[in-house]
Amino acid sequence: MIKLFPSNMKFRKYHKGYYPKGISKRGSAVNFGKYGIKAIDPAILNSDQIESVRRVIMKKIKKIGRLYIRVFPDIPVTKKPIEVRMGKGKGNVEYWVTKIEKGRILFEMSDIDYNKAKLIHDLIKHKLPMKSKLSEKLVNFN
């Protein structure tokens, strides 16, 4: 299991912020691999969801292919314990999330063929909280 939270931060707890809307300005093209999983809808993705998708992909590509994770959960989400009254400060950090805009590449895979990439996408699309599609790297011959 990989560590899916920042090693050090300026502050431990943050404000909730906004729900992502609009189209991703950066990170919308496949750069490292041959195929990518692209988010069609905006969503909030937590570290457990990223880890479960990573496990499924690694099980399918084995040692032949390579996986690139293009998102990192760097926003802490706090929660107060069960049966605790309101007040007395903000709760402890419960889990970590990342905000995904529409059109963002989440994962990239290389050294595999299209059929295997399509199979992997069909397996992981129900594990993600948004609609996604398989995206292929654009090759420029100029």
TrEMBL record:
Q: Name one Pfam family in it.
A: Ribosomal_L16
One GO biological process this protein is involved in is:
mitochondrial translation
**Keyword annotations from UniProtKB, A to Z:** Mitochondrion, Ribonucleoprotein, Ribosomal protein
A GO cellular-component term linked to this record: mitochondrial large ribosomal subunit
A molecular function annotated in GO for this UniProt entry is:
structural constituent of ribosome
Please give the PROSITE patterns that the UniProt record associates with this protein.
RIBOSOMAL_L16_1, RIBOSOMAL_L16_2
- Which branch of life, at top level? Eukaryota
Q: Which NCBIfam families match?
A: rplP_bact (TIGR01164)
To which protein family does this belong? Belongs to the universal ribosomal protein uL16 family.
The name under which this protein is listed is Ribosomal protein L16
What organism is this sequence from?
Imasa heleensis
